[in-house]
Design brief:
This protein is about 80% helix and about 0% strand. By secondary structure, the chain is mainly alpha-helical. α11 packs antiparallel against α15. The chain is globular, with a radius of gyration of 20 Å.
């Protein structure tokens, strides 16, 4: 890419509203990742049970998945700025709940059992919030930037997302090691407040869904119909869905950190962030040198390599090798994120962005939590190490099946 092309890719940062959006999303995602890291460590510290970690994922998956289609309908008929302010405020209330059950006297009064189940209840509530917030964050981009700058916006948006993920996981591990759970969650609350402030600086957005006569159910199902009609979108979503579902080794990182690699909370935080670090490297490279041809074929190779990395992580007993395996898995996953995200933004009509983003949330984002639950169940049935290796093998099997049954995806280009 020429120097002029590289400047064009970053030109979008000159838009004040887009800068505010990126800053808001950065701190919001940091807060989400910190909660994931801190809660995962805390629950395993309380229970010493891998299945209990899986229940965290199930608690967040159920509401996010069940409400996704309805959320898409609501998003398309709402002012997206207002919806983001509401959902972020609700998330702040959930963090306040985590702060409350981290106060020393209350912990002693409630006991470990109640702390565990109150945590699941709060995470369930965040799943409800995520059903609306995640797709809205994706859908609003097209109302902030011109269409011709959407590919650049998607890439930079993904970069900010991944950087926030890395720092969120790492900061969570650092806070666990050097402070209490109370101060850790207070820090999360501060980050959510920062996100809320920058979201408030966005301009109100026009409601694009104008067909008020259409029944709610028909409107909800339009998103599914569009995805199943658009082969490129369906293929990319389905491949990523099963890869994330079976390759959810990250869910077992607290077990590996404490019992197998014995690296402590700081090492746990960095191991949790390794895949996101790898993804950032890929996103940065693809910002400067985007894929020009054979994106579908590259996607399939990347997902297969992701599965192989999960197998290596599952078998490793050496911290550096485990870190490198997750780092490379993140680099390969970054390719999938960019290819899928670009297809979604370019193929989706403006009036359907909320509903299609919600379907994507069902396929991809919720599969993270369902994959976490699947990992917990398989760890209970097979043991931790065999369950992770099994997940990596299944990911590679899904790629082979897709290769044979979906040649159109293999040949896809944009």
């Amino acid at each position: 890419m020429t120097q002029e092309g590289r400047q064009t890719a970053l030109e979008i940062l000159r838009l004040p509203e887009y800068r505010s959006f990126i800053i808001a999303r950065f701190f919001y995602i940091m807060a989400l990742r910190m909660v994931t890291t801190i809660v995962g460590w805390r629950i395993y510290e309380i229970t010493h049970n891998a299945f209990a970690i899986g229940l965290i994922g199930l608690s967040e998956f159920l509401p996010a998945f069940c409400l996704a289609l309805y959320a898409g309908h609501v998003i398309d008929k709402s002012n997206k700025r207002s919806l983001l302010l509401i959902t972020t405020s609700c998330y702040l209330v959930c963090v306040a709940g985590l702060i409350t059950i981290s106060i020393g006297p209350l912990i002693r009064f409630l006991g470990v059992h109640w702390i565990q189940w109150l945590t699941y209840t709060i995470i369930f509530t965040t799943g409800v919030i995520r059903a609306f917030a995640g797709p809205t964050l994706n859908a609003i981009i097209a109302q902030i930037v011109p269409r011709e700058q959407l590919p650049s916006a998607v890439t930079l948006n993904t970069s900010a997302f991944l950087l926030a993920s890395v720092l969120g996981h790492a900061t969570g591990g650092f806070l666990i090691a050097h402070t209490t759970y109370l101060y850790s969650f207070i820090t999360v609350a501060v980050y959510v407040c920062i996100a809320l402030y920058f979201l408030s600086t966005l301009q109100p957005k026009k409601v694009l869904l104008v067909n008020a006569e259409k029944k709610t159910l028909d409107s909800i199902l339009d998103g599914l119909r569009f995805v199943f009609r658009t082969r490129e979108v369906l293929g990319a979503m389905a491949l990523d869905l099963f890869a994330v579902l079976f390759g959810g080794a990250v869910a077992m990182i607290p077990v590996y950190a404490r019992d197998i690699l014995k690296i402590g909370p700081i090492g746990f935080g960095w191991l949790n962030a390794a895949s996101d670090i790898g993804s950032i490297c890929t996103i940065f490279s693809m910002t400067l040198y985007p894929l020009r041809r054979k994106q579908g074929l590259t996607l399939m190779y990347a997902v297969a390599g992701f599965g192989a990395c999960i197998i290596v992580f599952g078998l490793s007993r050496w911290y550096l090798l485990s870190f490198i395996a997750l780092l490379v898995s993140g680099m390969l996953d970054g390719i999938s994120v960019v290819v899928r995200g670009t297809i979604l933004q370019l193929k989706t009509p403006d009036v359907m962005r909320g509903r299609v983003s919600s379907v994507n949330s069902m396929f991809i984002n919720s599969s993270n939590e369902l994959g976490q639950f699947e990992s917990g169940v398989m760890a209970r049935l097979l043991g931790v190490v065999p369950s992770v290796v099994f997940g990596g093998c299944m990911t590679m099997a899904v790629v082979i099946f897709t290769w044979l049954k979906a040649p159109a995806l293999r040949k896809m280009e944009y």
